[in-house]
Amino acid sequence: MEAVSESSQFSYYKHGVTKNIDTANVIFVLVSDIGVGEMEQVMIQYDTRDEIPTVQLERVVKSALDDQWKRLDFGKMIDQVIPFLPFEHQHIVEIIALKLRQLDENYRGKYWHRLWIEDNIADYMSRLDSVHYKVRSAVVNGKVKSSKVFAKYGARDVETGPIQLLKSKLLRYLRPFNPDAEIRISQDVDTKEISIVSCAKEEAKQKRAKSKQRSHTAADVEDSTTSS
């Protein structure tokens, strides 16, 4: 739906064509947590989300809504249900990666010139104790047929957990702040330890220049060896 519009309409794209639906007489009801358990039980029966029949998900969520609002008799007023599927581990990794990019961009020129974060840091942070997961299993004839790991609280504990932890460490150890500094966060392959390294902008330029110089020197030596 358009954020700012003179008319109430819902726009969506299909096969490269924009379609608009009048929503002047539509009420959108956004709810969370209702039907989550039912959706998880459906999801563990399929390998991927794309395989799950949309109708099946809509049915279980609608049933959960009816049970939740039975006393209010509100469920019968809902014409269409759009399920928002529970997050799995890979989605938490993607959300943390997005938050890390935003962290870099939001404080550029204030706390650092650039904040460089290795790709594997997001996965590491997603496995900290502050991010909670739960395992759902499908049991058939007393045997576990399949299992999936879901984020217990969605993405709610991402900001208050690993992101807040990283922020506090950065703001504590980088004082006094240098808006020209290049900050790099990396993880040792063997020890799995996380390191935060800061260097001034000029130092970073010199390191890159030396690295390029070594590359050119190596190339010149290789050319000389080939010629001889």
Describe this structure in words.
- By secondary structure, this protein is α+β, with helices and mostly antiparallel strands.
- It has helices spanning 36-43, 54-68, 89-106, 120-126, 156-173, 201-227, and strands at 9-14, 17-22, 114-117, 133-140, 143-151, 182-187, 194-199.
- The chain has two domains: 9-77, no CATH class; 89-221, no CATH class.
- The chain contains six helices and seven strands.
- Helix 1 (36-43) runs antiparallel to helix 2 (54-68), helix 3 crosses helix 4 (120-126) and helix 3 packs parallel to helix 5.
- The radius of gyration is 26 Å and the shape is extended.
- Residues 224-228 have low confidence and may be disordered.
Number of domains: 2
Roughly how much helix do the residues carry, as a percent range?
40-55%
Number of strands: 7
Strand order of the largest sheet: 3-6-7
Tally the helices: what do you get? 6
CA(first)-CA(last) distance: 69 Å
Key attributes of the depicted protein:
228 residues, alpha+beta, 2 domains, two-stranded antiparallel ribbon, 6 helices, 20% strand, disordered C terminus, Torsin, ATP binding, ATP hydrolysis activity
